[in-house]
Write a structure and sequence with these properties.
- The protein has two domains: 129 residues, PAS domain (Beta-Lactamase, 2-Layer Sandwich); 75 residues, no CATH class.
- The chain is built from eight helices and seven strands, in the order E-E-E-H-E-H-H-E-E-E-H-H-H-H-H.
Amino acid sequence: MVGDVDAPLPGTPNTADTGRPDEGHNPLEMFVDPNEEQRVGRFQFFLADQRWVWSDTVARMHGYEPGAVVPTTDLLLHHKHPEDRPEVAAVLGRVQSGEPFSSRHRIIDTDGHTRWVIVVGDYMLGENDAVLGTAGFYVDLTEVLQSDVSAAVSEVTESRAVIDQAKGVLMAAHGISAERAFDILVWRSQETNIKVRELAARFVDAVAGRMSPNVVSRIDHALLTLD
């Protein structure tokens, strides 16, 4: 049974094997300004050795300095809010099978502060499309993102329609605000080095291309049955 948050943490002290290939460089957070506090971070879970890797941002969300501990399933469960822990335990079971998932829940950091997060994961594929595990991201919903996104604002002005469509998809999928949806688009733009406008267009096209007739029918039904 997972203990209380103020109990000794079940994390593994970080020694030589940190899951971070290059000292001083975290490949999970490329294109992110290290001088700004980040609200979105990456994680990976490898099926073969049941190994977790998280970015510096995700470590800080949990209250750790980068490289302080090696994340484990027990450590992650330990930080979940007690009321959310059973649901998250079920989600982690899916992660350990390499399945896609999404979850919105609370975590409690090492200082006892509660944070609301969204965690989304999808298949991580290797050669011949073999499933290696799960890769995805954490989004900290606790506070409004304060970092400067002025470079992306011009993209919104020029291409507001397609960006608003992309934001709408994320808002509907995860029940988040327009501002937080835009934060995710900006983060992915930084991570992929693709302009926000182009990234939004590709995302909308990808979603539209994968929408089954059953999903479309459910959307139509919801629209036509509103009073």
